[in-house]
Write a structure and sequence with these properties.
Strand order of the largest sheet: 7-6-3-8
Number of helices: 11
Radius of gyration: 43 Å
Structural class: alpha/beta
Distance between the termini: 87 Å
Largest sheet: 4 strands, mixed
Order of helices and strands: HHHHHHHHHEEHEEEEEHE
């Protein structure tokens, strides 16, 4: 069975075109034992035979004594020769059309050049109308920036607003930019009714992606933040190192009742900022974390006051063998 399977596989691999003599040579070349009689028997018993190339059927007989129709178009017909085929492949397909008078039919051109017959017909029409310049390839598709709802100047204005401003500055009922927020903005700016899908395509083309915003307190003072980062923090770190102390960063946190799970469009890599008040209400947690990532925390079921926070600091000191530098927020 294995021998018969390999025999059928080889015959199928060779596209069923081999007869018994060539199958004998092929099997011997692949390391199988094969006699001419055995190969002939296997092919006969399993219905395998060589597939012969179908011969072309002659449909034209010019050797007759019948009257020939008058050449009303004054065309000069001649036979297509192998030499012409080689010259076409060398000089390019555009050399064929000027010689159309010498070529009987478009199918022969298509077969020699290797294209569809409709393509050859198209070449012939373009050549007859425009000459050789009509055969040059032309750029396909619509032109760049054609068919867009917004001009480049309008796109630039819209992008500048999305990056530098927020919807509330335009009296829009949105906290962050999204597709539904951009739609009324386009209407206000340019008096254009733009579908939400088109808005998304513009944002994607500009490289804007929906991102979850960072929260920043309204009370933050950028000048004091810069002073802290450049002067105060380095001096505290140097003193703690000199005295062998551990720096802790402490803060009191309330359970948030206004979690922001919003997403808004902004340029990729530039996370939007959602301005929100820093006050919280409800269950509180006071915690401290060192520069090494060690965390100490405590939950408090009442509002934080001075006595409760002093008690937390006492327990924090008791839990550390080194001096503690405690940096508080607010």
């Amino acid at each position: 069975m294995a021998s018969l399977f390999s025999f059928r596989s080889i015959h199928a691999e060779l596209k069923n075109a081999y007869g018994s003599p060539r199958m004998v040579r092929e099997r011997r070349a692949r390391g199988f034992s094969a006699s001419k009689e055995r190969v002939e028997r296997l092919m006969r018993d399993n219905g395998l035979h060589a597939r012969h190339k179908r011969r072309d059927k002659v449909t034209t007989d010019s050797r007759h004594g019948l009257p020939v129709a008058e050449n009303l178009l004054a065309r000069h017909f001649s036979s297509w020769r192998t030499g012409s085929e080689s010259s076409i492949s060398k000089n390019g397909w555009h050399e064929i059309l000027p010689l159309a008078d010498e070529i009987p039919r478009e199918p022969q051109i298509a077969r020699v050049v290797g294209v569809n017959i409709n393509t050859v017909i198209g070449w012939s029409k373009r050549y007859s109308m425009e000459g050789e310049p009509g055969l040059k390839s032309k750029t396909r598709g619509r032109r760049y920036l054609s068919g867009r709802r917004l001009s480049l100047a309008q796109e630039w204005q819209l992008r500048s607003i999305i990056v530098g401003e927020n919807p509330k500055q335009w009296s829009l009922p949105f906290a962050l930019w999204n597709r539904r927020a951009v739609m009324p903005l386009v209407k206000v700016l340019f008096d254009i009714e733009m579908p939400i899908r088109t808005v998304g395509e513009y944002l994607l083309r500009w490289g804007y992606t929906p991102q979850r915003p960072m929260k920043r307190a309204l009370e933050q003072n950028p000048v004091k933040v810069a002073q802290w980062l450049n002067d105060t923090s380095p001096s505290i770190a140097a003193r703690a190192k000199a005295e062998g102390a551990t720096i802790y960063w402490a803060d009191e946190t309330a359970v948030a009742e206004d979690g922001h799970w919003l997403r808004g469009y902004a340029p990729a890599g530039q996370t939007p900022v959602l301005v929100a008040p820093s006050k919280r209400h409800g269950l509180s947690m006071v915690s401290a974390i060192s520069n090494q990532g060690l965390v100490r925390f405590e939950f408090i079921e009442e509002a934080m006051n001075t006595d409760l926070f002093i008690g937390f600091m006492e327990r924090l000191i008791a839990d550390n063998r080194q001096k503690v530098f405690l940096i508080l927020d607010n």
